[in-house]
Specification:
eight-stranded antiparallel sheet, alpha+beta, FAD-bd_PCMH_sub1, Uridine Diphospho-n-acetylenolpyruvylglucosamine Reductase, domain 3, flavoprotein, 465 residues, Alpha-Beta Plaits, globular, FAD-bd_PCMH-like_sf, 16 helices
């Protein structure tokens, strides 16, 4: 797109959106031009900030007429660079941050309808004010926006109980690549009338359409919670502990986190936080919640049985909400502590839950043999099969080589190279390498059908032709 065409588009966008709806100054667009990890810098032509669905549709139409690529952006908290423009200076960032309304909360039907720019924490608080729970929860919930949560199919700590975002979306409002608005904001648990088209847009990272609002499923708000931290001999023991907890506590388990000894070492070193159960090769953080009494007794029984069997060597059950928060602080400080330690290659992978011990053993062995000097920082959501297998490297190590080694092990265990972070631009080449060609071809056919001009977030999820 020529400089003259770009300038003409900017002028038309300004006329349609007004001063509050368009950013062009370099200092104003800078926060939208790079991801929060600062790995993927870009240079947008401008940042469009529509305040309504009608304005989103207008922006999409104007960009299509000009042949300009559009990059939808929520809170820009993603880890795969999927919401930032390239460096051409011709792509328009479409920020949904001004569309903040919560259109309704139904505490009886257990639904909440929110616009794409609503901060996830605000939506959670609105659900809580109605005595209900919005189960999606992860570290960036204070800045992530609902539209981005849907577009990336966000995961988090509660997936083991409530599932991914995909399972919590009942209805969507979407603007298509030609500017047409599709209103599917139905708050129905059962709707078998034709194709479930909304699923195409959940997790599509803005490459098929722009999510402008969503109906989200709520849950009853538990009255009781129990949080425990246990030291376990190895991941196999953690797997047995998961089975025990499922038998004793059932679907009250909403988080089951596996934490390696090196992870806690980094937290002690850089965050000054120490585990109350001392040094351990591996630890497990369990949280359960229920509206029924007796939960704490059930969790105590889990700890006692695990210790008796030798599947745990030490453990502590939080006595208060404050103590529970302190236990969670250990888990939540891992990523920041890793960043302070040095350069790392991050892997957000999943394998079948029963394969986790073997995956961890093989991946560690492969790296020790083929990338000596690397250090593994492994932690994550064992309850749903998702491990953040991050590898601290030195200048002698190539990130691409580390990726291929780790993802090769993932393949051998029938896993996925992206459990919850998405593909973005970070894993585009790896997706081609690790997905069957027929799956890639099918994805391209869907993309061609919904975005024939290839103007929605080009270069993300699928490599450019």
């Amino acid at each position: 797109m020529s400089r003259e065409t770009t300038q003409a588009l900017i002028e038309r966008l300004g006329q349609r959106l007004g001063p509050a709806g368009l950013l062009t100054a370099e200092s104003d667009v800078a926060p939208f031009a790079i991801d929060w990890r600062r790995l993927f810098p870009g240079r947008p032509a401008c940042v469009a900030r529509p305040g309504s669905t009608a304005e989103v549709a207008a922006v999409v139409r104007l960009c299509r007429e000009a042949g300009a690529a559009l990059v939808p952006q929520g809170g820009n908290t993603g880890l795969a660079g999927g919401a930032v423009p390239d460096g051409s200076g011709t792509q328009v960032v479409l920020s949904l941050a001004r569309m903040t309304a919560i259109r309704g909360v139904d505490p009886v039907g257990l639904t909440l309808t929110a616009e794409a720019g609503c901060v996830l924490k605000v939506a959670q608080d609105a659900a809580a004010a109605a005595g209900r729970l919005l189960p999606v929860s992860f570290a960036a919930e204070g800045s992530a926006l609902v539209g981005g949560v849907v577009a990336t199919n966000a995961g988090g700590i509660n997936v083991v109980r409530y599932g991914m975002t995909r399972g919590l979306v009942l209805g969507l409002e979407v603007v298509l690549a030609d500017g047409e608005v599709v209103d599917g904001l139905r708050a129905l648990r059962k709707d078998n009338a034709g194709y479930d088209w909304k699923q195409l847009f959940i997790g599509s990272e803005g490459t098929l359409g722009v999510v402008t609002a969503a109906v989200l499923r709520l849950a009853a708000r538990p009255r009781h919670a129990a949080t425990a931290l246990l030291a376990v001999p190895d991941p196999a023991a953690a797997l047995r502990l998961l089975t025990l907890a499922q038998e004793e506590v059932g679907d009250s388990i909403q988080a089951f986190e596996l934490i390696s000894g090196p992870s806690l070492g980094l937290v002690a070193k850089h965050a000054g936080l120490r585990s109350p159960i001392g040094e351990a090769g591996w630890s497990v953080l369990i949280e359960a919640a229920s509206s029924l009494p007796g939960l704490r007794d059930a969790m105590e029984a889990v700890l006692a049985t695990a210790l008796e069997r030798g599947d745990a060597v030490d453990g502590v059950l939080a006595e208060s909400g404050r103590q529970a928060a302190d236990l969670w602080a250990l888990r939540e400080s891992i990523t920041e502590s890793e960043a302070r330690e040095g350069t790392s290659v991050k892997h957000d992978v999943s394998v079948p839950i029963t394969a986790i011990p073997d995956f961890l053993e093989e991946a560690g062995r492969v790296l020790a043999a083929q990338a000596p000097g690397t250090r593994v920082n492994a932690f994550g959501h064992m309850g749903d099969g998702n491990i953040h297998y991050n590898v601290l490297i030195g200048p002698e190590h190539a990130a691409g080589t580390i990726n291929r080694l780790v993802h090769g092990v993932v393949d051998r265990h029938a896993g996925s190279i992206s459990a919850e972070h998405g593909i973005g631009q970070y894993r585009v080449d790896e997706l081609v390498r690790h997905r069957h060609p027929a799956e890639i071809a099918l994805a391209r056919r869907i993309k061609a059908a919904l975005d024939p001009d290839g103007l929605l977030n080009p270069g993300k999820v699928l490599a450019r032709d």
